[in-house]
């Protein structure tokens, strides 16, 4: 039987030049940088989400400041201003109250958000999302019964929010809605409807708590699962490291099988001497 070293010397690894192995090798070479790139992308997402979670946490724990320190008429609420705690003093204008359609509560029940203008001492208006109420029926065409806010002059606190847009929220701004119903909370649009100056953005009310717990106050935003992106980062990089290891294991197994098959072949018969 021929020794193994002789078999290897005669080109056991020549199979790497076959079409099948050339394609496998090229695919492996393409997978490695692709997986490394995906790992960096997931790391970028991890850093983004971690930064956002910290920004939200800092905003939610901030002391309340007068709302006009952070927003004004025509102001666009920035990412750093979002969720900041603010306070304002004025009188609720329930005569121009509207409801925001297709909003869900913590139990995923569809209903409305109650949007009530708060007329400040200087005559400007702050939009206040007083919370969630259930819909009266499945069609949501009738204006629902809304618990009244505190009467007279009142001081409120809430989380500052940017104007809603279809691009940011994914909510379509439908036309032809029933009277006093809207799809999006938008200060510019409410300014035109009310015919007065409205501060940019709106607030999600946190205090005073409504009597009878209705409308339901909106809960704080949840944190994004940044740890999952970090786990995906490690996973992609482990996959990238595993590709050459797997390729080498397959090559060595193929070489052993070919060597064993070659070793089992009978020796060529020597020519007979006369």
From TrEMBL:
<feature type="transmembrane region" description="Helical">
    <location>
        <begin position="230"/>
        <end position="250"/>
    </location>
</feature>
<keyword id="KW-0812">Transmembrane</keyword>
<keyword id="KW-0472">Membrane</keyword>
<comment type="similarity">
    <text>Belongs to the SURF1 family.</text>
</comment>
<keyword id="KW-1003">Cell membrane</keyword>
<protein>
    <recommendedName>
        <fullName>SURF1-like protein</fullName>
    </recommendedName>
</protein>
<dbReference type="Pfam" id="PF02104">
    <property type="entry name" value="SURF1"/>
</dbReference>
<feature type="transmembrane region" description="Helical">
    <location>
        <begin position="20"/>
        <end position="40"/>
    </location>
</feature>
<keyword id="KW-1133">Transmembrane helix</keyword>
<dbReference type="InterPro" id="IPR045214">
    <property type="entry name" value="Surf1/Surf4"/>
</dbReference>
<dbReference type="InterPro" id="IPR002994">
    <property type="entry name" value="Surf1/Shy1"/>
</dbReference>
């Amino acid at each position: 039987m021929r020794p193994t070293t002789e078999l290897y010397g005669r080109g056991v690894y020549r199979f790497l030049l076959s079409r099948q192995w050339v394609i496998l090798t090229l695919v492996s070479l393409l997978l490695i940088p692709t997986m490394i790139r995906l790992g960096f992308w997931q790391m970028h997402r991890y850093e983004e989400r971690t930064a956002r979670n910290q920004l939200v946490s800092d905003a939610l724990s901030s002391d309340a400041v007068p709302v006009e320190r952070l927003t004004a008429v025509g102001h666009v609420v920035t990412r750093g201003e979002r969720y900041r705690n603010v306070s304002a003093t004025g009188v609720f204008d329930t005569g121009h109250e509207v409801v925001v359609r297709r909003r869900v509560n913590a139990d995923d029940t569809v209903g409305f958000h109650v949007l009530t203008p708060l007329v400040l001492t200087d005559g400007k208006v702050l939009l206040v999302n007083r919370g969630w109420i259930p819909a009266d029926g499945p069609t949501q065409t009738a204006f629902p019964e809304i618990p009244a806010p505190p009467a007279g002059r009142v001081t409120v606190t809430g989380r500052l929010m940017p104007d809603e847009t279809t691009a940011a929220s994914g909510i379509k701004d439908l036309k032809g809605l029933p009277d006093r119903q809207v799809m999006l909370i938008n200060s510019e649009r409410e300014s035109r409807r009310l015919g007065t100056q409205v501060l940019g953005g709106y607030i999600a009310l946190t205090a005073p708590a409504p009597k009878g717990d209705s409308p339901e106050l909106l809960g704080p935003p949840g944190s994004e699962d940044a740890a999952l992106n970090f786990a995906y980062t490690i996973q992609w990089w482990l996959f990238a490291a595993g590709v050459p290891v797997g390729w080498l294991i397959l090559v060595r197994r193929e070489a052993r099988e070919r060597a064993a098959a070659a070793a089992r072949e009978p020796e060529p018969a020597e020519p007979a001497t006369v």
